Amino acid sequence: MSGKLQDRIAIVTGGSRGIGRGISHVLAEAGAFVVVNYTNNEAAALEVVAGIQGKGGRAEAAQADVGVKADIDRMMDGIEERHGRIDILVNNAGICPFNGFFDIDEETWHRTINVNLGGTFFCSQRAATAMRRNGGGAIVNISTVTSARGSRDQVHYASSKGGINSLTNAMAYEVGKYGIRVNSILCGGVWTDINAHQRTEAAVAGITSRLPLGRAGLPEDLGKAVLFLASPDAEWVTGAHLAVDGGSLTM
């Protein structure tokens, strides 16, 4: 494969499923060597790798719990040792344990913030260290429209993603002088395994009927937006928050 990301080394956290799977495939199709990060499900990550390789792309799987800094450092060190550089980081890994406001306990709160916000920060810090040595790079953070408007049973999740939006701004300001661009995508209206319990026929029909574009999003829709932000086409874009949501923020 060849394209806008030819020979770039790209890491997709949480790349073994859902949106991360779609992003991994799109970046590989654009020529990147994709590191598919996973926490526990090695088989799913290897399936993504095999799918990419079956289309002529290049990829490998890398285990790390992004809620654990030591795991992040181990994974990033290994990637640099094998490939010599890191060009693109997509902070996609996240959890959303659906709980009502009054039912969120301390453990659930801290784990959600630690994985979603902490993982994004520490992965970015470590990857940006490598990018700075090599003259620049691109970081894309996957956020959500929920951070702007709230949603049922997602106070902790929305809070973590709102933090990611602020982190995107702050990081873009801090690392721009090193040629590193940092942007976020506000995702909405995409059905994946994280919200599978909500995917009743009535729920899907209700949401898609209200979306201005009239259909649910696909992981590949997010992948195409990530490709733009990670590519030279976005060389003068940083600190931006791109809504990829079928128009759900207008609802």
For this entry, give a set of tags.
251 residues; alpha/beta; 8 helices; globular; EC 1.1.1.47; SDR_fam; NAD(P)-bd_dom_sf; glucose 1-dehydrogenase [NAD(P)+] activity
Task: Please characterize this protein's 3D structure.
α4 links the parallel β4 (88-91) and β5. The model has no long low-confidence stretch (mean pLDDT 91). The chain has one domain: NAD(P)-binding Rossmann-like Domain (Rossmann fold, 3-Layer(aba) Sandwich). Helices cover 46% and strands 16% of the residues. The protein has eight helices and seven strands. A seven-stranded parallel β-sheet has the order 3-2-1-4-5-6-7, sandwiched between helices. The chain has 251 residues and is of the alpha/beta class. It is globular and about 45 Å long. The chain has helices at residues 18-29, 42-54, 69-83, 106-133, 146-149, 155-175, 201-210, 219-230, and strands spanning 9-12, 33-38, 58-63, 88-91, 137-144, 180-187, 241-244.
Kindly summarize this structure in a few lines.
Residues 8-194 form the Ketoreductase domain. This protein is an alpha/beta fold and 251 residues long.
The helix count comes to 8
Distance N to C terminus = 39 Å
For the record, the count of structural domains works out to 1
The tally of strands reads 7
Which CATH C-level class is it? Alpha Beta
**How is the quaternary structure best described?**
single chain
Q: Helical amount among residues, as a percent range?
A: 40-55%
**Strand content bin:** 15-25%
Going by CATH, the architecture would be 3-Layer(aba) Sandwich
Instruction: List the helices and strands in order.
Output: EHEHEHEHEHHEHHE
Q: Quick one: biggest sheet?
A: 7 strands, parallel
CATH-derived topology? Rossmann fold
GO molecular function, one term: glucose 1-dehydrogenase [NAD(P)+] activity
Family: Belongs to the short-chain dehydrogenases/reductases (SDR) family.
Keywords: Oxidoreductase
EC number: 1.1.1.47
